[in-house]
From TrEMBL, chain A:
Its cofactor is [4Fe-4S] cluster. SUPFAM superfamilies: HydA/Nqo6-like. Belongs to the complex I 20 kDa subunit family. The keyword Repeat does not apply. The keyword Transport does not apply. This is NADH-quinone oxidoreductase subunit B. Residues 24-134 form the NADH:ubiquinone oxidoreductase-like 20kDa subunit domain. Gene3D superfamilies: 3.40.50.12280. GO terms for molecular function: 4 iron, 4 sulfur cluster binding; metal ion binding; NADH dehydrogenase (ubiquinone) activity; quinone binding. It comes from Solidesulfovibrio aerotolerans. Keywords: 4Fe-4S, Iron, Iron-sulfur, Metal-binding, NAD. It comes from the Bacteria. InterPro entries: Complex_I_20kDa-like, NADH_UbQ_OxRdtase-like_20kDa, NADH_UQ_OxRdtase_20Kd_su.
Automatic annotation (TrEMBL), chain B:
It comes from the Bacteria. This is NADH-quinone oxidoreductase subunit D. SUPFAM superfamilies: HydB/Nqo4-like. Keywords: Iron, Magnesium, Metal-binding, NAD, Nickel, Oxidoreductase, Translocase, Transport.
From TrEMBL, chain C:
One of its GO terms (molecular function) is NADH dehydrogenase (ubiquinone) activity. Gene3D superfamilies: NADH:ubiquinone oxidoreductase, 30kDa subunit. It comes from the Bacteria. Residues 8-91 form the NADH:ubiquinone oxidoreductase 30kDa subunit domain. This is NADH:ubiquinone oxidoreductase 30kDa subunit domain-containing protein.
Length: 147, 408, 121
C-alpha cells in the first residue's frame, strides 16, 4: 500500500540530475531553458536537483571523453534504482560532429546503458521534455506498474 | 592550522559545466586553488585535418554553443583575410546583428545563472524569461535557437526582410523594458551587493598582467574591447567599451548588465544603417579547383510546428514571415586558402583569437583557437586564494566560465 | 599575410621580460607542426589592440624555456602544447606533465603529424 503510494509519487514527480559530458553547451542551456518560465517542466512535477543520490532520471548532454567517462560512471552508480538515462543531442546519441576527434569515446551508451535518445543539435526543449516523459515509461516497467 | 583539501566539481549544482577545482582551505579561507581541466576536451582543432575549410565553420560553431555565431564569424574573417575576399557590406551588418543578439542572450543567461549562484532563483527565472524572446528572434531569423549557422566563408547564409527587422525592433523594445525592471534587483539590492561587492577583487595591474579579457578586464578599469578593432561592421558603427573600476564580482556583473543594453543599441543602429545588396561574395583563392559548398535548404517551416502564443503571456506581434529569406548564396567558392592569419573578435566572455594556417589544400593545416575563458582562468586562480569558501561559487561564476570553450 | 618577427631560443625569456616591462599583454602562444623542420611556436603579444607576433622555429625534442615565471598566464598554453605536441618547457610554474587534458590511455601527442602518419599506415 505504502510502496504503491511511493511508486505513484516517483512517476508523478521524477527528479532529474543533469550532467554535462563534453557538450558544447548548446544542449546544456536547452536543458536549463526547460526549467524556466516559457517551458517550465516543474508543471509536470519534474524537478532538477544537484545530487545524483536523490535523482530518478539522469540527463546526459555531450560526447564522452576519456577523462569524464569515469565521472559519468560514478554519477550513474550513485543513483538509486529504478533509474533511467537520457542521452541528449547528437553528441550524446552518437558523438555527433566530434566523433572523429581523438579524445572522444563516442556516445553516452559506450559507458552506461541509455534508455532514451533525444536527437537534435541542439535538442529543442520540447524534445527534452518529451524524452523525460518517454523515460518514465521505462521506470514504470521497472516498478511493475504497467497494467 | 589544519588544512583541508576540498574538491569543487566536476559535477556541482552551481556549475553547468564540469570544472574541477582542488581547494586547499584553512578554516573557511581558501589558501590555494588548483584546476583540473580536460573533462570537456574533444580535440576539435585537430578536426581541421578531416574536414575541409568550409565544413570547419560548422565545427568551430560547436566549440561553444552559447557564442557559436561569433566563433564562426572569427573563423570566416580569418579565411577571408587569407583568401583576400571582400565581404559585401550588407553581410557585415547582418553578422554584427546576429553577433550582438548572441551577446545579449549570453549575458542574460549569465545574469540568470549568477543570480542562481547567490540563491535568487526567481531572478534567474526572470532573466531567462526575457532571454527566450531573444531566442525567438534567433529562431525566426535563422531557423535554430542556439547554434545559428548563418556565417559562411564569403558572407552570410540568410537575409533579413524589412518586416523582420521591424519585428526584431519591436521585440527589442519589450525585452529592454523587461530588463530595466530587473535592474534595481541585480544592481541595487542589499543582499546582492553583500554577496558581490568586494568579493574576488582583481586589481587593475593584476588584470592586465594576468591577461584577463572581456568583462573581467573591463570590470577592472581597462577600456579594451576587440570590437574597437572594427571587425564586421563595427568599423562603421563606432564603439565605446563599457568600463567599471572596482574589479570585484559586482563590477563584472555591472559591466555585463550594461553591455546587454548597449548591444540592444548596436543592433538597432545596425538595422537602421544596413545597406541593401548582396549577402555573400564569391570566394576565389589562388588555386582554381572548385570546392563544393553545402547549401542547406530553407528550414523556416520549423516555427510553425508549435503555437508560440501559448508560451508567451505578454504577446507581441508574431514574426511577420515565417519563411526565412535565404541570402544570395549563389556565390561560388573557388580555390583554397594558402597563408596565415590571426583574427580577433569580442565574444560575450571576452576577446577570442583565431590563428589559421592554410597550405593550399582544402584542409587547413592548423586552426588554433584562444578562447576568452582560457585567458580568464589564470586570473581566477589568482583571486581565489584569500576568499571565503562560501564565496567560491559566486567568484567562479563571476568570470563567466565556459569550459567547453576553454578545452575545445 | 601575417607579419612575424623571428625569435631565437635564447631570446625567448628576455623578449618576454622586455614586453612584460613595456606593458604588453600576452595574448597566447600557438604551436604548429611543420613536419621535418620541427615546430614553430608563435608568441602573440598585444598592447592597445595592436598585435605583435614572434616566430620561434625549433627542431623536435628541443626543450623550450618557459615564460610562465614572467607571464603567469602562459602556464595553461604551455601545458597544452606539452599535451598536444609533446613540446617540453622547462620551469613551468604549474606543470601538469602532459596530463592537462589527456588521460594516460590516449595516444600521446595527438597533434603531431608524424604520429598521424603512423596511424594511417
Amino acid at each position: 500500500m505504502l510502496g504503491n503510494l511511493i511508486n505513484q509519487g516517483r512517476i508523478k514527480s521524477p527528479w532529474v540530475v543533469h550532467f554535462d559530458c563534453g557538450s558544447c553547451n548548446g544542449c546544456d542551456i536547452e536543458v536549463l531553458a526547460c526549467l524556466t518560465p516559457i517551458y517550465d517542466i516543474e508543471r509536470f512535477g519534474i524537478l532538477n536537483i544537484g545530487n545524483p543520490k536523490h535523482a530518478d532520471v539522469l540527463l546526459v548532454t555531450g560526447t564522452v571523453n576519456h577523462r569524464n567517462k569515469h565521472v559519468l560512471k560514478n554519477i550513474y552508480d550513485q543513483m538509486p534504482g529504478p533509474k533511467a538515462v537520457i542521452a541528449i543531442g547528437a553528441c550524446g546519441c552518437s558523438g555527433g560532429v566530434f566523433r572523429e576527434a581523438y579524445n572522444v569515446v563516442g556516445g553516452v551508451d559506450k559507458v552506461i546503458p541509455v534508455d532514451v535518445y533525444v536527437p537534435g543539435c541542439p535538442a529543442r526543449p520540447e524534445a527534452i521534455i518529451d524524452g523525460v516523459v518517454a523515460a518514465l515509461e521505462k521506470v514504470k516497467t521497472l516498478l511493475g506498474m504497467t497494467a | 592550522m589544519a588544512r583541508t583539501i576540498l574538491p569543487f566539481g566536476p559535477q556541482h549544482p552551481v556549475l553547468p559545466e564540469p570544472l574541477h577545482l582542488k581547494l586547499t582551505i584553512e578554516d573557511e579561507i581558501v589558501v590555494e586553488a588548483l584546476p583540473t581541466l580536460g573533462y570537456v576536451h574533444r580535440g576539435l582543432e585537430k578536426l581541421c585535418e578531416v574536414r575541409d575549410f568550409n565544413q570547419m565553420v560548422q565545427i568551430v560553431e560547436r566549440v561553444c554553443g552559447i557564442c557559436s555565431c561569433l566563433h564562426a564569424l572569427c573563423y570566416c574573417e580569418g579565411i577571408e583575410q587569407i583568401m583576400g575576399v571582400e565581404v559585401p557590406r550588407r553581410a557585415k551588418y547582418l553578422r554584427t546583428i546576429w553577433g550582438e543578439l548572441h551577446r545579449v542572450h549570453s549575458h542574460l543567461l549569465w545574469l540568470g545563472l549568477f543570480a542562481d549562484a547567490f540563491g535568487f532563483e526567481s531572478l534567474f527565472m526572470q532573466f531567462w524569461r526575457v532571454r527566450e524572446r531573444i531566442m525567438d528572434i534567433m529562431e525566426a531569423t535563422c531557423g535554430n535557437r542556439v547554434v545559428v549557422s548563418v556565417n559562411v566563408v564569403g558572407g552570410v547564409r540568410r537575409d533579413l526582410s524589412p518586416e523582420q527587422c521591424q519585428w526584431i525592433e519591436q521585440q527589442l523594445i519589450i525585452s529592454e523594458k523587461e530588463i530595466r525592471q530587473l535592474q534595481t534587483t541585480i544592481l541595487n539590492d542589499y543582499t546582492v551587493k553583500k554577496r558581490c561587492c568586494g568579493k574576488g577583487v582583481l586589481t587593475k595591474e593584476q588584470a592586465y598582467q594576468l591577461g584577463a579579457v572581456g568583462p573581467m578586464l573591463r570590470g577592472s578599469g581597462w577600456a579594451q574591447d576587440a570590437r574597437q578593432t572594427g571587425y564586421a561592421a563595427f568599423g562603421e558603427l563606432g564603439f565605446e567599451p563599457i568600463v567599471e573600476y572596482d574589479g570585484d564580482s559586482y563590477a563584472r556583473c555591472a559591466v555585463r548588465f550594461r553591455e546587454t543594453l548597449q548591444s540592444f543599441d548596436i543592433v538597432r543602429l545596425a538595422i537602421a544603417r544596413m545597406p541593401a545588396g548582396e549577402t555573400a561574395a564569391n570566394v576565389e583563392g589562388a588555386n582554381e579547383d572548385d570546392t563544393p559548398r553545402i547549401i542547406s535548404g530553407n528550414r523556416g517551416g520549423i516555427m510553425q510546428s508549435y503555437n508560440r502564443d501559448k508560451h508567451h503571456s505578454i504577446t507581441a506581434a508574431p514574426p511577420p514571415d515565417l519563411d526565412i529569406p535565404a541570402g544570395s548564396l549563389a556565390a561560388k567558392v573557388k580555390g583554397k586558402p594558402d597563408g596565415e592569419a590571426v583574427t580577433r573578435v569580442e565574444q560575450p566572455r571576452g576577446e577570442l583569437m583565431y590563428y589559421l594556417k592554410g597550405v593550399g589544400s582544402k584542409n587547413m593545416d592548423r586552426v588554433r583557437i584562444r578562447t576568452p575563458t582560457f585567458a580568464n582562468i589564470p586570473p581566477l586562480l589568482a583571486i581565489l586564494p584569500g576568499c571565503e569558501l562560501a564565496d567560491v561559487p559566486v567568484i567562479v561564476l563571476s568570470i563567466d566560465p565556459c569550459i567547453s570553450c576553454t578545452e575545445r | 599575410m601575417l607579419e612575424t618577427i623571428p625569435l631565437s631560443l635564447d631570446e625567448v625569456v628576455a623578449v618576454a621580460k622586455e614586453h612584460f616591462d613595456g606593458g604588453w599583454r600576452l595574448v597566447t602562444m600557438t604551436a604548429v607542426d611543420v613536419g621535418e623542420a620541427g615546430f614553430e611556436i608563435f608568441y602573440h603579444y598585444d598592447k592597445d589592440l595592436v598585435m605583435k607576433h614572434y616566430r620561434l622555429s625549433i627542431p623536435k625534442e628541443t626543450v623550450v624555456p618557459s615564460i610562465s615565471p614572467v607571464y603567469f598566464a602562459a602556464l595553461l598554453v604551455e601545458n597544452e602544447s606539452r599535451d598536444q605536441f609533446g613540446i617540453c618547457f622547462s620551469d613551468i610554474v604549474l606543470d601538469f606533465g602532459g596530463h592537462l587534458y589527456l588521460e594516460a590511455e590516449v595516444r600521446a601527442m595527438p597533434f603531431c603529424k608524424v604520429s598521424v602518419a603512423q596511424k594511417q599506415s
